[in-house]
Recover the amino acids of this structure.
């Protein structure tokens, strides 16, 4: 399988601050790719560049064989790129079902068809009991699932998940991992930012490590965790984290 | 089959619509007082204005404080075409609508890039500019205004009737059309997209919504509806000048009838307009000795509604709100006793 998403030399400056510098990697169709890195490493910036929330300073984003570097967020969504936000951005005044319907309307012009699709997705993400509750009444975990549901309703080829596991307890986390596996089993490629190493290790096929805005390395989970530089970046230099 | 299904889907709306229309058609037949008819006509006209604002302000969440602009365009197009060519309002109204939409497109494209308060301020500035331009524009009567009263034309052609009932029914007809338009928008993809943009523009954009396009479209439709209201008002007054049409208070009243009634709802603006205009007009005639007291009453009412019914008067109509309020009252009574 070829690469669905290709990031070439992505560089993003905010004024004088180099948030991302020369990051390149690929995500193969049908795979789960994890992005890890310490706080402030520039993971979300990279995500925003990929989903076109802000423009790149230089570099290219190739999605499904098409250069989307200059596209707008709603255009890449129509091409099949769905995303979630680290801090859930639900449409608070609308009901859960309506939130998902907004996503589903992306490829459907009939409200009725969108409603049916939204009900399916809601079922799939275990949200159906909240269908008629307003999004503002959901808790954080449910809102995160709602984000995923809305993105899924747009029938994406690639799903960008920004820290969907942060702040979840053990059981919730297991449920979330199952959900991600289920989504991936439907043929959707997943690119996820994750802090919880256990999650990344258990689901990702490939892990990209970003430190201080640069790509440190990429490889399978085992290669990454055994790399002393990665451990250094996570735990700080000078410490001997008992992994010699 | 299809008709049946859509009837079932919107049964609640259709029933309300039928009842409200029946009342508004039948009751005025028995009203003979000119003043009462005058109030009713103003109510329908301001309902249309509120409905128009509701599309951009209520559904798409962009607070425009400059809708008097489109109100004036509708009014002036109607007035000038009548004065120059004796054109019937049945036609000139649509010219006004078209012109309003074009202007909404031109000014909406840059202004809608602004968010929240900045959009509100810029639209307010725009309408002030328009007022000053109109005040000095000789061609359209400048500060002296335009009067256009033609006795010789057939009444149903010129909308200039001897009594108020025919005009009321014309105005009511347009109000009914605007209500149906709102309902159609609310239950369409466009309506969902507008509400999504209002709720959260970022996530709307990442869900595949071209926010700029949909906001502009909402602004244009909203301008068109308000322009219809302006055309009706001008034909009713048969005299217009910038001081009547374009003061800031007019832009505010358009917003107010909608906010008081309930933003983002089909019936909110109608309810708001009927209540606010009735109170305002009757207070004005009642306190004729103390000019300005009607505004004090009006102001107090606005404060109370904003404090106790932040979602507008429409929330009173919903059953659970009444139950909630009575529950709260009972609790308080119990606590004090």
């Amino acid at each position: 399988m070829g690469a669905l998403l290709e990031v070439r030399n992505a560089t993003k400056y905010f004024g004088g601050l180099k948030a991302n510098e020369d990051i390149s990697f690929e995500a193969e169709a049908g795979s789960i790719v994890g992005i890890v890195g310490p706080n402030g490493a520039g993971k979300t910036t990279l995500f925003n560049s990929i989903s076109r929330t802000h423009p790149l300073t230089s570099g290219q984003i190739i999605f499904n064989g098409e250069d989307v570097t200059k596209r707008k967020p709603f255009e890449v969504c129509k091409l099949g790129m769905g995303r979630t936000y680290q801090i859930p951005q639900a449409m608070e005044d609308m009901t859960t079902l309506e939130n998902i319907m907004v996503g589903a309307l992306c490829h459907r012009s009939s409200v009725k068809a969108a409603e049916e699709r939204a009900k399916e997705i809601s079922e799939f993400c275990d949200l159906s009991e909240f269908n008629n509750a307003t999004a503002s009444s959901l808790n954080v975990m449910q809102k995160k699932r709602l984000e995923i549901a809305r993105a899924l309703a747009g029938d994406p080829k690639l799903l960008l998940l920004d820290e969907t596991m942060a702040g979840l307890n053990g059981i919730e986390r297991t449920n979330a991992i199952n959900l991600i596996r289920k989504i991936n089993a439907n043929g959707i490629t997943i690119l996820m930012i994750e802090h919880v190493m256990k999650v990344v290790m258990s689901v990702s096929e490939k892990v990209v490590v970003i430190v201080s805005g640069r790509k440190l390395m990429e490889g399978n989970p085992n290669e990454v965790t055994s790399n002393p530089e990665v451990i250094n970046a996570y735990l700080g230099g000078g410490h001997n984290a008992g992994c010699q | 089959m299809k008709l049946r299904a859509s009837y079932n889907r919107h049964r609640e709306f259709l029933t309300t619509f039928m009842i409200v229309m029946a009342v508004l058609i039948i009751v005025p037949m028995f009203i003979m007082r000119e003043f009462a008819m005058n109030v009713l006509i103003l109510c329908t006209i301001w309902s249309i204005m509120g409905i128009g604002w509701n599309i951009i302000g209520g559904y798409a969440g962009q607070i425009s404080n400059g809708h008097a602009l489109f109100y004036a365009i509708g009014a002036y197009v109607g007035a000038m075409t009548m004065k120059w060519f004796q054109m019937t309002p049945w036609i000139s109204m649509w010219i006004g609508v078209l012109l309003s939409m074009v202007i909404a497109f031109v000014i909406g494209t840059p202004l809608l890039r602004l968010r929240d308060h900045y959009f509100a301020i810029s639209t307010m500035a725009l309408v002030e500019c328009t007022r000053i331009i109109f005040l000095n524009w000789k061609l359209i009567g400048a500060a002296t205004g335009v009067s256009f009263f033609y006795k010789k034309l057939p009444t149903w052609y010129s909308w200039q009737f001897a009594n108020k009932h025919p005009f009321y029914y014309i105005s009511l007809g347009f109000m009914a059309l605007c209500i149906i338009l709102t309902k159609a928008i609310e239950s369409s993809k466009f309506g969902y997209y507008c509400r999504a943009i209002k709720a959260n523009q970022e996530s709307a954009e990442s869900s595949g919504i071209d926010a700029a396009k949909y906001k502009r479209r909402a602004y244009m439709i909203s301008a068109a509806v308000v322009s219809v209201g302006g055309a009706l008002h001008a034909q009713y007054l048969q005299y217009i000048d910038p001081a009547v049409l374009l003061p800031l208070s007019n832009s505010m009243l358009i917003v107010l009838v909608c906010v008081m009634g309930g933003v983002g709802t089909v019936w909110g603006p109608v309810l708001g307009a009927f209540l606010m205009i009735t109170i305002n007009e009757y207070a004005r005639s009642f306190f004729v000795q103390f000019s300005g007291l009607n505004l004090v009453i009006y102001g107090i009412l606005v404060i109370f509604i904003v404090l106790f019914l932040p979602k507008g008067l429409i929330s009173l109509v919903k059953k659970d709100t009444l139950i909630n309020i009575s529950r709260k009252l009972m609790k308080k009574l119990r606590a004090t006793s």
